[in-house]
Design brief:
Length: 487
């Protein structure tokens, strides 16, 4: 019966997609262009979406084997938080499991439906904002076609069909950036946009704790842009205050009201939990001679070596020091250890940070390097999860977008730089400032993230590059058209 339902869903999805594509593509800016180069991009869009539909229908009842999935499920019954996860995503799992009991529909299918719909709606919302403020040559059909195209980016779609918080966190970030663009362009936000932005920031923070810093920096940069290009009115100051206070207040209240997992021995998320592994792990044994005598009394050479090799977690390492000398002294000691290590390894540290930033900011290049040349992060792990259920189809889907998309992107950017150096006019600079800033912020995740580079944490960057591909390809067609008219 399940097989019949799967193939029926596949048939309906393909038929619906073909109907939408055939009826909508004719009235898009891309199709209206007289040149023949457009057919390359139209074919790319069609094939990626078709592969995406095939992959989605074949994986909609499959739970991808990520380590964090089990932890989220464990937190859902009974509903509890941990030092690194709130109760929001476990609550979604709990509700989905209750729906499964009532309807016999797999709880993962319920979650995948919610995440996929959220992704489509947020992409559609984002592109509408771009249409209104950046690209007035788009119409509704352009937005529909490009929404499907961006939704079926395989590296993002993998997490739409995973029991992880990354997909919803990515969707919330799209809403935040979209409203940032609207705010900068129009000079203020109406009540509806303000409510959407507050909810997006709140939910983003509840889905991923680390988004607090990103959102705060994002709002500070928005304020700087507004002060330079627009008038800083009392209303804008009020909006900024609301966006800084209300979402964080809701997160704090929810956190206080939530029960913790019993026997959760992990250290709470503090500055020391970020600094120590980012700076000291991998170098502490090498720099042991430079540590203070007080630090050496607590941290032996063997312990430093075990921490470098990952035999001891950062949480256990910090808890051990706190139990030995007390929390206040431990914090000073950890900062002292980190500083001594950094002083003697800053060249290596800087090179590693720059490498991480490059990989995070260029995930398509990251994919090519990781899967073909050298192991540099955790992308190959995500790829192995992606192809696990349907290997042949998954490899075709993933690699088609990775290699063909990267090739098109390189060609389009090179062509635009060669033909038109003054692409960014004053108005466009203002409009895309939040867009680019979020791109840089997410790319700079490599500065503070203490784990190996992993494209799972920067799904938004894939979205950015493919939007650049869309706009860049259309712009290159316009340049050719203008040249023909002049000739």
């Amino acid at each position: 019966m399940k097989i019949i339902i799967k193939y029926l869903a596949l048939l309906i999805s393909i038929s619906l997609y073909n109907y939408i594509f055939i009826t909508k593509i004719k009235d898009t800016r891309l199709h209206r262009d007289p040149g023949k180069a457009k057919y390359i991009f139209i074919a790319f869009i069609y094939i990626q979406c078709m592969l995406g539909i095939l992959w989605t229908c074949n994986n909609f009842d499959y739970i991808t084997q990520f380590g964090d999935t089990g932890a989220y499920v464990y937190q859902s019954n009974p509903l509890r938080k941990t030092s690194i996860r709130t109760v929001l995503y476990p609550l979604l799992i709990r509700i989905s499991m209750e729906i499964e009991k009532l309807t016999n529909i797999s709880y993962c299918a319920v979650i995948y439906t919610i995440q996929s719909l959220c992704s489509i709606l947020c992409i559609y919302y984002f592109l509408n904002v771009l249409k209104e403020n950046l690209n007035d040559r788009w119409n509704k059909n352009d937005v529909i076609i490009y929404t499907l195209f961006l939704h079926f980016i395989p590296q993002i779609n993998e997490f739409n069909l995973s029991v992880l918080s990354d997909s919803l966190a990515y969707s919330m970030l799209l809403l935040v950036v979209a409203n940032g663009i609207k705010w900068v362009c129009e000079g203020n936000l109406n009540k509806k946009d303000l409510v959407i932005l507050i909810l997006a920031i709140f939910l983003g923070n509840m889905l991923r704790y680390e988004r607090k810093i990103l959102h705060i920096v994002f709002l500070i940069v928005i304020f700087i842009i507004l002060s330079k290009y627009k008038e800083i009115s009392k209303k804008n100051v009020f909006i900024l205050a609301c966006l800084l206070v209300i979402p964080l207040m809701f997160v704090k209240v929810t956190d206080i009201c939530s029960k913790s997992v019993e026997n959760d021995n992990r250290h709470e998320q503090t500055a020391t939990m970020v600094v120590l592994p980012k700076v000291a792990r991998g170098y502490m044994e090498e720099c042991y001679e430079y540590l203070s005598d007080d630090a050496k009394c607590v941290v032996s050479l063997e312990l430093a070596g075990a921490y470098d090799r990952g035999e001891i977690s950062t949480s256990d390492f910090i808890i051990y020091i706190e139990q030995s000398v007390g929390q206040d002294t431990a914090n000073k000691m950890i900062y002292s250890i980190s500083w001594e290590v950094f002083k003697n390894t800053y060249r290596k540290q800087t090179a590693n940070v720059l490498k991480d930033c490059f990989l995070y900011a260029n995930p398509l290049m990251f994919g090519v390097l990781e899967l073909n040349l050298v192991h540099v992060g955790g992308l190959d792990w995500n790829y192995s999860r992606f192809i696990m259920n349907t290997p042949t189809l998954s490899k075709l889907y993933y690699n088609f977008t990775l290699y063909f998309g990267l090739m098109l992107l390189i060609v389009v950017i090179a062509y635009l730089i060669w033909k038109e150096k003054n692409i960014l006019k004053d108005k466009i600079r203002v409009v895309i400032a939040p867009f680019v800033m979020a791109f840089l912020l997410t790319g700079l995740w490599g500065v503070v993230n203490n784990s190996k580079p992993n494209d799972r944490y920067v799904l938004y960057i894939y979205f950015v590059w493919f939007v650049i591909l869309i706009v860049g390809f259309e712009e290159s067609l316009s340049i050719k058209k203008q040249k023909v008219l002049i000739d």
